Amino acid sequence: MSTARAAGKATPRGLLVDRAWSALGESVAPLSNEAGRPLARTVKLVLDPLVLRPVLHPEFAAGAVAAEHAEALCERIVRAGPVLAATAAWFLVLKKERRRAGITDGNPQDLYFQRCYELATAHGDPRLDPSATDRAAGVLAEVHGQDGPTLAGLRRFVADPGNAAGLTRLLDAEWTAGAEPPGPESVRPGDFLATCATDPDPGLFDALVADRAGTRGAVGLAEPGVALAHGLSDRDRPVRPELGETAAKQNLPKPFDRSIVERLFVPLSNAHRDALEDVPALVRKEIARCARPWQLADEAGRVVMVLGREAAAGLAGDSRSDAAARLRARWEREAYVRRVLRMPSAVPEGVRADVHGVRQAYLRRLWVRTHGRELRRDTVPVDGLWDVLDGVLRSVILDQRDRLRSALERRAVG
Predict the structure, then answer these.
(1) Per-residue pLDDT averaged across 182-190, rounded?
(2) What's the CA gap between 75 and 413, in Å, rounded?
(3) 3 state SS of 65
(4) CB within 10 Å: which end of the chain, N or C, has fewer?
(5) 20: which residues sit within 8 A by CB, 6+ positions away?
(6) pLDDT tens digit string along 205-243?
(7) Cα Rg of the chain, angstroms
(8) Of 3, 77, 89, which Cα lies nearest the Cα of 46?
């Protein structure tokens, strides 16, 4: 095919995707931006995981694709043209049904893009399917029909003048009360980290919880610059949060800087909200939680944060435990990390910042996952705790790879 010929040694991946996408024409317009390129969510939710599948085809994963693989990448997108066109058509059907049903919660692209691809793969073009409307209604019922609190309900509850004054007084009281100081240390977190990857000791974890190791590890977070250095705040020291009114996924503040509404925004936006309590209970418990050590309610979750902080010390070169050494080894295997450490001036500034700030990014991601687990009332899986600690780093690495790829594509285009 002649859709795209890689010039030179490599071609920016984004250019190849755009060229192949342009060959699909107006049939994929609902998945495209005003310039006719695929939307960022189209790439993230459809092209990458369902069409290009870079995990199985690593030659498509880099920011610049080698000449010998450029044609294959384009052909893969063009061959998927019929199912992508059907995906776009299903998206229009679902949006029409969404409007008819009066649904306003959630971003339609986030919620429906992958479901539309599934419908396209199983049923083809909806314009040729007499049951298309019923199928779309079924998908909407499945996506939106789960029980549990909603973002709209959260906003109404917090904004209600009959609730706001009492909630503000509760906030003031919780932040005035403070936390009971822990006693002297009798169990060291490093003892658990020494074997948690290969032979986790539930008794040792329980001893850390009983010893209030998580609360003890939070001492100092309210001091100037400490939460900032942990990557949990952009302020010199955390302050009492506001109740808040709105939240947006694209610009959520750091965890300790979020309003009560912002702290509950992500859990109420995901697929597990049916496991959450009702809105009044959620809000009141979040108000109490935000004034506790690590801004978490359960000692087990605080212990997880302390263990994560000690393990993440390996990312800064302090590998005194087996867990820290393992995280460090995974981190150093990444080619972009080695390049930044060896030749910092050869990579974009944002990538250097990512690499040097990885420990802070790790602790933020670990806090979000621990907080979400608390809200769902999930117990900490001691025998799977290493998977949690290791999985957080994997998630941070994937995000950094995506940002690196975008930065390199922008640089190449420029």
Answers:
(1) 86
(2) 22
(3) strand
(4) C
(5) 3, 4, 73, 74, 75, 77, 78
(6) 999 999 999 999 999 999 999 999 999 999 999 999 999
(7) 24
(8) 77
- Tokens for 320? 């005194």
pLDDT at 247: 83
Q: What are the residues whose beta carbons fall under 8 Å from the beta carbon of 142, sequence distance 6 or more?
A: none
Number of residues assigned to the chain: 414
- Res 1: pLDDT: 46
As a whole number of angstroms, the distance between CA 18 and CA 35 comes to: 10
> Model-level pTM?
0.72
How many CB atoms lie under 10 A from the CB of residue 63? 20
The two three-digit tokens of residue 89, written as one number = 């058509």
CA torsion sign for 37, 40, 41, 46 is: positive
> What is the rounded distance in angstroms from the CA atom of residue 304 to the CA atom of residue 300?
6
Q: Which residues of 188-209 are buried (b: 16+ CB within 10 A; e: fewer)?
A: ebeebbbebbeebeeebbebbb
Taking CB atoms within 8 Å and a gap of at least 24, the contacts of 159-166 are 159/245, 163/280, 164/243
- 138-157 burial: b if 16+ Cβ within 10 Å, else e: ebbeebeeeebbbbebbbeb
Measure Cα distances from 244 to 172, 175, 257, 320 in Å.
Answer: 15, 17, 11, 41
Question: Could you report the per-residue pLDDT of 333-359, keeping only the tens digit for each?
Answer: 888 888 887 877 766 777 788 888 999
Q: Please determine, for residue 291, whether its predicted confidence score (pLDDT) is greater than 60.
A: yes
Give the orientation angle of helix 161-177 with respect to helix 279-289, to 10 degrees: 30
Give, for 181, the enclosing helix (H) or strand (E).
none
Please check whether residue 31 is in contact with residue 95, taking contact to mean a CB–CB distance below 8 angstroms: no
**CA dist list (Å): 393 to 36, 52, 154, 330, 398:** 35, 24, 31, 8, 9
| Token couple for 129 | 């399917």
Rounded to whole angstroms, how far apart are CA atoms 227 and 36?
43
Amino acid sitting at position 350: G
pLDDT of res. 5: 45
